[in-house]
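Why should sequence recovery work at all? Because a backbone constrains its sequence more than one might expect. Tight turns favour small or flexible residues, buried strands favour hydrophobic ones, and helices have their own preferences. The token representation captures these environments compactly. In the example below, the structure is given first.
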């Protein structure tokens, strides 16, 4: 009995160890890390370079199983049949898309599963068909594209040579006729109004000089803000009424926009009358006693009936409390014998001189 006791203990230990191994395997396949699995058949319609048994299976980027079997399709050697084993909880559907992806620097292939909505009928073996070209790597795709390009070039080598020869002939012709082409382009620019733009000619409005001695000077501070005017008068161009084509004034420009030009020349006129008490722009002073507000109504050449220059200003004198002290409409016109820039500017100078003298006398009396 003493001799047989050790053998009984050893046998019991070995039996317990075998039972423990079988228990661990059962736990691992059912309740452990692997869990229940479902097998699916996958068919690739082309080569699957580098795919091996044991390669991973990803569903929407998450590893859910591995490849358990690979083989060529017996009815079509271009196709590859594979069996994948994935976790039973994976939502594989009849329309799940199958592809082959290459991961890492070494390009290890894995089977990819994506999406799907159609549930397979119960009991039917589910076979997933991979997308055409799913096993094609980027390198293979580049090789195929270059091969197709090479085929196209080879098939059209003759026409390509003729096209290159024609381009060379055309470029040689252009080189021989460069001077003629430049002349043609210059003529087209002149015909369409292109080329170097014509130089604009600037004209100024003159303030009256001979206003006589200042009989009465300004005892209060006065400012002349920039006159107001409609948008049409906010320009440096010569204005006509009615509007028409006046080619002689195509290059004409006043020295500034009409409101700013009138403001500057009115201030010059007041300075020529009494430089010691002349008004300034509103921005040049703080609080002033009075402001001479000007609204420009007309500043144009009228061509209806007798051609003439017309200037019309509406003037108001406002004290520092905003009260209108006096108001007046000042108008002047000057006959224009010849519609040309120099004659027109001279007529504007004469009409503006009369308006400036009238405004100065009226303003002196009002303030």
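From this structural description, the recovered sequence reads:
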């Amino acid at each position: 009995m003493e001799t047989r006791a050790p053998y009984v203990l050893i046998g019991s230990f070995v039996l317990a160890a075998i039972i423990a191994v079988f228990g661990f395997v059962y736990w691992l396949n059912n309740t452990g890390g692997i869990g229940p699995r479902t097998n699916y058949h996958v068919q690739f319609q082309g080569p699957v370079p580098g795919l091996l048994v044991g390669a991973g299976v990803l569903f929407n980027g998450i590893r859910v199983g591995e490849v358990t079997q690979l083989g060529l399709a017996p009815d079509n050697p271009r196709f590859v049949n594979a069996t994948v084993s994935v976790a039973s909880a994976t939502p594989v559907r009849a329309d799940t898309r199958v592809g082959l992806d290459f991961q890492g620097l070494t390009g290890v292939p894995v089977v990819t599963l994506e999406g799907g909505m159609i549930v397979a009928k119960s009991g039917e073996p589910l076979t997933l068909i991979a997308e055409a070209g799913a096993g094609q790597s980027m390198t293979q795709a580049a090789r195929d594209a270059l091969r197709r390009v090479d085929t196209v070039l080879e098939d059209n080598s003759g026409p390509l040579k003729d096209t290159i020869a024609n381009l060379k002939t055309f470029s040689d012709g252009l080189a021989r006729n460069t001077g003629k082409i430049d002349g043609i382009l210059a003529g087209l620019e002149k015909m369409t109004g292109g080329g170097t733009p014509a130089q604009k000619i600037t004209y100024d409005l003159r303030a009256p000089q001979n206003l006589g001695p200042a009989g009465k000077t300004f005892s209060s501070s006065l400012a002349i803000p920039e006159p107001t005017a409609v948008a049409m008068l906010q320009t440096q161009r010569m204005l006509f009424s009615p509007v028409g084509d006046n080619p002689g004034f195509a290059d004409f420009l006043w020295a500034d926009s009409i409101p700013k030009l009138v403001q500057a020349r009115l201030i010059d006129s007041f300075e020529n009358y009494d430089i010691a008490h002349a008004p300034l722009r509103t921005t040049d002073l703080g609080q002033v006693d009075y402001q001479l507000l000007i609204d420009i109504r007309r500043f144009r050449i009228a061509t209806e009936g007798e051609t003439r220059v017309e200037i019309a200003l509406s003037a108001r004198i406002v004290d520092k409390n905003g009260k209108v002290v006096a108001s007046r409409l000042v108008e002047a016109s000057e006959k224009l014998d010849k519609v040309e820039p120099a004659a027109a500017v001279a007529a504007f100078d004469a009409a503006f001189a009369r308006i400036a003298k009238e405004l100065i006398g009226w303003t002196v009396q009002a303030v």
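A few observations help interpret the result. The chain has two domains: 36-132, 201-366.
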